[in-house]
Amino acid sequence: MAVMKKQNNQLFQWLMLTPTLLFLGFFIIVPFLFLIMLSFRDVDSMMNVIETYSFAHYLEVFTSEVYLKTIGSTLWVAAQTTVYCILLAYPAAYLIVRVKNRKLRALFYILLVSPLLTSVVIRTFAWIVLLAQNGLVNEILLKLHLISEPLSFLWNMKAVIIAYVQVMLPFAVLPIATSLADIQPNLRNASMSLGAGRIRSFINVSLPLTIPGMLTGAMIVFSLSAGSYITPLLVGGRMQPLLPLSIYQQVMQVFNLPLAAAMAITLLIAVLLIVGALGLILKRWERRMHG
User: What stretch of H or E contains 43?
Assistant: First the structure.
């Protein structure tokens, strides 16, 4: 009787999951399989997709010095964005968790999450308003007589990283804040009662316990940064050596869809490898901390 009840519960759970599984399969898995197939299709001189298959597009991606530099630049920019986000997110998460007033803490969470309710395009255009030659930053510097003529902040990789950090920062703060909130206050108090100061208690107790949150935030920020194209397109320009922009150009300007698909699969595999490595580090760290 108990076995039948357990089987009925499992059947009910699978029935409840069926709509979600069908949605994911139809809108994610099936298009992804079509993308893989498209990446092996050949094109004629007019960029029309033909029926033959080959590895020509992958060979072009991995043998072209331009594309190899673009892949490296994409991953390097994503890595820089991830490091900056983690460094800025930790103090913000610490402040949110440590504040004792619940209303103030709720206000901080609202301020943190509210940018996510705004379109990335709008937030990126805000950076254009700030960093343009006639923008707010240049106006302030000119009025303070710190510069004699407007500086060019836009259309370079630094502008892309600045905008990336602002867009991705909430995704780093939330996992770190969760890890900090899970730390028992008694651990820190016990460390200080044994003679360790605040700094030593933080380094030996709080920081190791928040490594999982930092790694989780790093995985989220890195994957989102590596695949974003709207932000670099608007503040960096279409000539920046980033793979999402190259994919965009192949689809919208060159109309070489199989090559764009090969680039997309290459980017996906590269990101999965790095995120998978971070996931292995996370598992080993958790095993080391919790046994």
Answer: strand 41-43
Fold of 67-290: MetI-like fold (1.10.3720)
Q: CA 9 to CA 13: how far, in whole Å?
A: 6
Q: Which residues pair with 43 in a beta bridge?
A: 49
Residue located via tokens 């302030």: 140
pTM: 0.90
Single-letter residue type at 35: L
d(CA 220, CA 81): 11
Phi and psi at residue 269, to the nearest 5°:
-65, -40
Separation of alpha carbons 30 and 140, rounded Å: 52
The residues with which 49 forms a beta bridge, in sequence order, are 43
pLDDT tens profile 126-143: 888 888 888 888 888 888
Distance of CA 140 to the CA centre of its chain: 32
b/e code 72-109 from CB counts within 10 Å (16+ = b): eebbebbbbbbebbbeebbebbbebbeeeeeeebeebe
d(CA 12, CA 228): 39
If you ran DSSP here, which 8-state letter would residue 53 be given?
A: E
Query: Which residue has tokens 């991830």?
Result: 82
What stretches of 86-192 adopt beta strand conformation (E)?
none
User: For residue range 227-254, what is the model confidence (pLDDT) as tens digits?
Assistant: 998 999 999 988 899 999 999 999 999 9
Q: Hey, is 164 helix, strand or coil?
A: helix
pLDDT digits (tens, 9 = 90+) for 71-113: 999 999 999 999 999 999 999 999 998 888 888 888 988 998 8
